[in-house]
Each structure stands twice: as structure tokens, then as C-alpha cells.
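Ticket reopened. Same input as before:
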Amino acid sequence: MGLDIKVPIGLMFTILGLLLAIFGLATAGDAELYKRSLDININLWTGLAMLLIGIVMLATSKLRPTKDK
Amino acid sequence: MESSFNLSWIDYTIMAVYFGFVLGIGWTLKRFMKSSTDFLEAGRSIPSWITGLAFIATNLGALEVIGMAASGAKYGMATVHFYWIGAIPAMIFLALFMMPFYYGSKARSVPEYLKLRFDEKTRGFNAFSFAVMTIFASGISMYALALLMETLLGWNFNFSLVISAIIVLVYVYLGGLTSAIYNEVLQFFLIVVGFTPLVILGLISIGGWEGLSESLADVAVRNGYEPGAWSHSWKFMGSTDSNPMGTEWMGIIVGLGFVLSFGYWCTNFLVVQRAMAADSMTGARKTPLIGAIPKMFLPALVIVPGMIAIALTTMPESGFELPLKGSSYDYDKVIPVMLGHYFPTGMLGLGLTALMASFMSGMAGNVTAFNTVFTYDIYQSYINKSKSDRHYLRVGQLTTIFGVIVSIGAAYMARMFNNVMDFLQLIFAFINAPLFATFLLGMFWKRATGHGAFFGLISGTLAASLHHGLTAPVGAESLVKGGWLGTVVHTYPSEMAQNFWTAIYAFSAALIFTIIISYITKQQKTDEDMTGLVYSLTPRIKEDGVAWYDRPVTMAILVGIIALVLSLLFW
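Engineering reply: fixed in the latest deploy. New output:
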């Protein structure tokens, strides 16, 4: 219905992914912050994963738009 | 608990971006809402991968996420019964055998199907009880979310309640069912991405699956069970006293797997509506099957965190504490406490946003289902019959506002009188339990009559309340739990076992009475009336144009095999 849902999902994941990844980079080395996530920079990793999902969504919406009647 | 919930700007930014997108989707779809069909049925134009994800997302509300994690902690692996036996077979049945009648008939809602197949009173009974039930369901989940935000984040109860309600209201008001469905897909992805890191971190910290099983063995022994009772699904279902659920395989298979699950997934308009919004018959039939694939793996996201949480209580060195409620754990706090334990600021914002997303997908489902049933089955049928479509579009939109306001009222009612809510939920359980019998007979036995269906439903509801009034679970404190008829003829080892058997009695009574009454009353509907509504009077669906691997039957077999393999793996 006039809107390919992959576009908003892709955009949101890209924006949130960038936000989290940049925040993760900026706080890298903050041992106190990442103690609870077992010394893993979970912000950076989740951010990168979301960014990847976002880009894939946007790319597929370009290549294969969701069609409806 | 460590002071875990200190949110910073990054957490609030994540929430704000999410709110922006859900509202934006509604805003974009606004200009496509030209008829009541667009608004209330999504124009029957949505591809099946979208309706499929929406189908399970709408069921994945906040109460489901919180409740399943709670059960994971309380009962362990056996909680998967609510998925692999308690959902998948019913979803397959809906796709293969029932969808052709819902989508193929002219019915726009589940109650309307009852009107076409049986009569006005059966539809009225279903429409009114469903409308009231959805309002209370969304009120209760709104209450639960606002309460959580209040205790965890110190947010004002009224503020979180009104804000979350208004966001759902706005995006449904603007874009109708399409907006709800599209947002459910977005919310589904967000829930997955918000909870997966929690499960990964939890498993790493506890030593993987093996470490988890070992700690769960301690939990089981501590509670007086065999070591495997928390890490197996079927192995300890031989008798009611060998597993923490207090149920046995018969209650699980017949009560949960057949009556309750088929009653929910096959007749509840909340989920069926998503499939009916699909763009074709094949798409509608594929909807529950596409939804079934992620559904089977959801236990990893919603049950495993609960299992990890209870396992962590055996390791004081982890610094993890599950809050108490009286003398036992407050299991409903599992998810928030786990989020606070593992997530630093940033991820914490994402995790809380995922929780809110789950709340909204559940609530929007209730709101859209209420809209449609109210507009078509109550307003158009009993209040104002022959108006222009424009009028009904407007009514549908206004019903959204009305529905949300009444749900807010229900949320405050839940806050004030906890017992009233327990009581209402009980009544709804009585009304729902026999429904599947009515649909089963309606769709597959053309002799079933309107009087048979109506009085069959009533007898089922009566049987459910009688059974509940004469039995009680061990340690029942109030009459809401059972035994309100004064004498307790049977005591069940758990509330769950009692629920399963209440459902079994209700279904059986409805089935038997519908058959008997149908035989002694005259069929009012002609064969012609029932074409497209009853199996024997409906031409078989031709799927010549659909490749074999793309057919619902092929997908159903695949889904069935995966569910079976999973059950055997986690036996």
C-alpha cells in the first residue's frame, strides 16, 4: 500500500545502528561501563549488527521492492 | 540489585528515534485510507511475509514477553510447550483447513463468519464478548507496562500510561490496520535485536548451554525434583508430581495443545485478522505458516532469559538477585532485572525500547481487532445499518479513539481492583474455551445449526464454570482460583493443570450439545447459503499456478518437521 516497509525498517536500523556503534567507539575502554556486559563492548557489536541489517534492508528494497496490489 | 537503571541521553535518543518511526509510518499511510476496507481490512493487499510476521508479533505483546520469561524461570524448559505443541499444530491447522473459509467467504471478521454460517445471536454473542475482552486485554497490558516503568525507571505511572496509549492511538488512527501491521513487523525486528544480545551475554556468563543445564540441575534438586526437571520439556511429564508445572502429558496435549491452542490461534480475530489482510488466498494461508517459522525459535529469546535468571540464583558470585514477592521470587521481574544486570547504557535503551515495542505490537493488535468488530459487527449490525462506506470509515477511525480511552479506563481499573481483573479474565476463559468446538462443527459439518451453535457455546461456558466451581488447585487462596460452588470434588496439583482440564470439559460440552441440539432443530441455512463456509459445500482450492515448493501444504510439512525435531532435541 504505497509504502515499502523495508524502507522505514532499514532506515531505523541504520540510524540506531550508527548511534549505538559510534557511542560504543566513544566509550571503548570504559572498563566500568562494560563490566556488566562481561567486558564486551556490546554497544559497538549490536550497533554494527543493526547497521548491517539496516543496509541489507535498504539494498533489497532498491533491488526487489515489496510489491502489493 | 545493583542500581542498574541509570538512563542517559543515548537511551532516550534511541527511544525517541523509535517513536519517530512508528508515528512516521502511520503518517505516511494516512493518505491511502480511502474506504472502510482500507482502514479496517488493510485493503486485503499485504504480501504474506509481512502479514506472517505481524501474525506472531501481535501475539508477542509485553505480557507474553514478561510472562514467558517468568514461566521459563518458574518451570524451565517445559515452558516451550506453549510454543511447539501449544501453537504450531494450531497454526498449521488454521493455514490448511480454516483459512479457506475465513478468506474465501465474504466475512470481514470472525464474528461475521458466525453470522453467515449460523445466525445473528451467535454472532452477537461472539462480537460483544470479543469486543469487551480486547478492551480489557489492552488495558491490562497497558497497566503492566506503566507499572514496570514506574518501579524500574521511576517514571510517573500516569505519564507512561498515557504516552504509550497515545502513540498507539495516533498510528492506528492515521493508518488503520495497515499501519498496525507494518509497525508490528518493525517492532518484531526490534524485539529480536534487543533481546538477542541479552541471551548471548547470559549464556556466555553461565558457561553456555552445558553450564546452564548444570545450574538448572541444582535448581531442580533444590526444589525437590530430578536434576533434569528444568532442562527437559517432555521427559518429566509422565506424572504431575515429577515436574514443576504440576501437569501431565495428557493435559498438555489435549488441554493446551488441542483445546486452548486451537481455540486461540484458529478463532481469535486478533491473529486471524492479520491473515485476512493478505493479498491472496495463498498468501492468507501462508501467513500462519510464515509466522510459525520464527515462532518456533522465539523460546530462545523469551524463555531462555528466564532459565538463565533462575540458574544465576544458584551462583551468589554472579551478583545477580531476583527480587522476592512474599516468600517466592517475583518472576515477572525476570526480564527487567536481566536487562539491568547485563546491559550498559546504550543497550539498555535498546532493550527497554524493545520491551515497549512488544507492548505496542500487542496493544495495536487489540485496538485494530476491536475497531473492526465494533464497526462491522456491532455498529453496522445493530446501531446504524445502511450508511455510506465513508460513514463507516469515519466510525472506524472514531472507534480507535473510543477504544483507546476505554482501555485506559480498564488500566486504571486494573490498578485499583486487582481481583476484578482476575475475575474478568476467568469469565473470558470460560467464554473462549468452547469456541473452537463451534468453529470445528461449523466448518466441517453442514448439519450444525444456529441454535446448536449458540446453545452449544452457552453449555460449554456453563461446563467451564461448573468445573471451575467444583475443583481447585492445591493451596487455592481465593474463590477466583476455584471451588466457588462450595464443595471441591477434585484438587489439581497446579492452577495450570486445572485450566487445561477446564478447557477440555468446556470443549467437550460444547461439542456434544451442539451436535445434539443441531439434530433436534431445523437447519435454517440452505446449501447455497453455506457455499464457501462449509468444507463439503466448497470447491477445492486450485493451486495450479503456484510452484510445489511455494504451496501452503509444502510449508506446513516443513514447519511440522522442524517443530518435531526441536521437540526431540530438547526432549
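The mean pLDDT of chain A is 89. Residues 13 and 53 of chain A are 7 Å apart (CA to CA). Please confirm and we'll close it.
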